[in-house]
Structure formats: C-alpha cells, structure tokens
Amino acid sequence: AWARALGGAGVLEAADVDALVAALAELRDEVAADPERLAASPAEDVHAFVESALGEKVGDLAKRLHTGRSRNDQVATDVRLFLRAEAKDLDGCIRQLVAELVALAEREAATPLPGYTHLQRAQPITAGHHALCYAEMLYRDAGRLCDAAARLDESPLGCGALAGTAFPVDREALAADLGFGRAAHNSLDAVASRDGILEVVFACTPALVTLSRLAEDWIFFASQEAGFLTMGDEVTTGSSLMPQKKNPDALELIRGKCARVIGHLTALASLQKGLPLAYDKDLQEDKEALFDALDTTRACLTVTATCVRTARYREDRCRAACVTGHLDATDLADLLVARDVPFRDAHHKVGAAVAAAEELGCVLADLPAEVRAEHLPELDGLDLAAELSVDSILERRAALGGTAPSRVRAEVDRWKTVLQSWTA
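The structure corresponding to this sequence follows.
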C-alpha cells in the first residue's frame, strides 16, 4: 500500500511500484510458509528484515520504500490492523458461546431452578432464563468490542515519526487501500496513542468478568450441595487421590484467568500514564500484555462454549430445591394483592404465615385450615397447592423479561434471529 502511495505521489515510477509490490507479495508467501525465517534473522526488527529481504529481490530499490514513513507510523498501523482482526475473531467466539447458551435455553426452557439473591434461595426461575441472562451480558460484551473496532478504523500510515510526511501522499486513498475507513488527522496523536489497545483489552475484561460469574454459578450448581448440574467429562477432571471426585477444573481456570486479564488491563493503563508526546520505547511493553490478554480471552470463550454444550441440568434436583425454603412466599403475597390486600399488608401477612409454616415444619400450601384462617382469611376457598405449584409460579411470569417457559421460548426465537444477523 505504501509503495502504491509513493507511486501516486510521484516518488516512485510505475515500474518500480510494480516491482516492489510483486516482491513484497513473494516475500509474504515465503515467510508464511516458513515463519522461523523471521526468528532466525539477525535483523533488528521486522522492518529491517523486510528491507533486507527486499534488497535481495529488487536491489537498491528496496531502500526507497521507506521514503516519507517511520517505524513509528508503521507499528501504529500494524497494531490497528491487528486489533481490528482480533476484535472480529473474538466477536465470533462470543457469538458461538451465545449460540450454545441459546441452545441450552431452548433445551431447558421449562426446567425449574432456584433463583438466588445474597446466595439465599429467593424465587423459582427456569434454567433457560438463567442461560439467556448470560447471553444478554455477552451480547453487550461483543458490542464493546465492536465499538472499539469502529474507533480503530483510522489509518496512521503516512504520519511519519511524529510530524507527518513531507511528500504529497494521498493518505485517504492510502487508508482505503489498507481497508481503513479514514486517515488519522493528527500525526502526533496517530503515532503516540495506544488507547485502542487499552480499549480492546478493556472490552475483553467485562467479557471475562461475565465468564467468571457464569463459572461461579455453575461451580456451585455442580456441587454435591446443590446437585443441579452435571458437567461433561471434556471439562472436568478427577482427583489424584479421591476416586469419587469430578472437579469443575475448566470453570475454575476460567474464573482464575479473569484476574489475569484484569491485571493486563491495569498494566496497560499504567504503561501509558504520563508518557510524553510523541513516541516512547515504553510502548514496546504493551505487546506482551496485549497478546496474552487476547489469547486468554479467546481460550476462555472457547472452553466456556464447550462447558455449556456438555452441561446437563438435573430436573429432579432442581425442582425439589424449588419447593423448599418457601420460594413461593412472594406469589402468596401476590395472591393476597389480587384479593385487594395492599402489598405491604400482604407482605406482613405472608411473613407471619411463613413463621407458622416454619414452626409446623410444612410448606405454605400445606398450612392447616385453622392457621390459614388466622393468617390468610382472604384466600379462603383458593386451591393453594395449585396456585403455589412451581409450574404455576413460573408461568405467571410471562411478561417481557420474565422467567416463564413460554417467555423463554419466545426469547429463544428472538435470539435465533439475532444470531442469524450477527456480524462483526
């Protein structure tokens, strides 16, 4: 692209441009076939390697290619090209994980599951609703990557070391030749700024936080104490000592690797703090943190997709957990509200009924007639067993955003449409 730009600026003859472009294409193919050639080269960096390798193909013409540019604007351009490609690839990984969550939600649309607040059982939900919660989170995480990629769609090439190029290069045409939407308008900013790196790694960070939260939920769900979920052999291991163990190692590693990416984000922000304009060698340090953050995020997304694909809910355990602990108390209050009892009064009445049920060792639907008459006279004649069944509780929450199986199935259909149109 730079050779063509120099040709357009009258710095190179058309024949020289053609020779350079052909030699560069040839060199690209050679290095792609043998990447070790780069590692074995005595050149200072990739730029010096390219110039030396070109010299072997086109002689002194290779020395003219660096006219009007710097390694500074080359690196800044390469980083942006790389980040845009990586953001697209990570977006694809998130899409695949969301697709697995949608498939899980479809399969478990009606499976009851205890919902928690403060790690205390609160109300029944469905496993499908739980899965789609993480689909929503990940969709926003993908949006952050998309936003970052849009701001990276600006070419620094032709900005030189810091002050711009002295040759009449058409930088807008050059940007288009490289696949950018526009050219950078300030040479100092173009070569000195790495906020794009920071933003992409920031976009990775909430995605990893999302995965860490999913991992935490499922580690508990798969425990013997809960027993709601079984994990596939692909993502679990046994104990080196205890034969009965099935440890959720993959989920634990995902939870742990979230901290690793947060650490890289902190390092990158600290690295860029207080750097004077324009370019400083400090910025070489950003690559290790960037590459590892991207590799870690990609690996975690891929492994989580495997976890979701191989997970199976145990409906019997899930349903049994929904009928203990008075998870139907809120619905009992709603039934009172439907009989014209103000909600605050209903809340108080149900609290007293729960205390009575606790004392008697029964569920709310099984309160003796005399206790019901004392605490819940407004519900006389109502079939509490039917009204407070797990399935009835779930299906009442069919409004948009609710956990009802019918709503989950409608959301699954919506997500299938989203996935069909999802493009990076």
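DSSP finds 19 helices and six strands in the chain.
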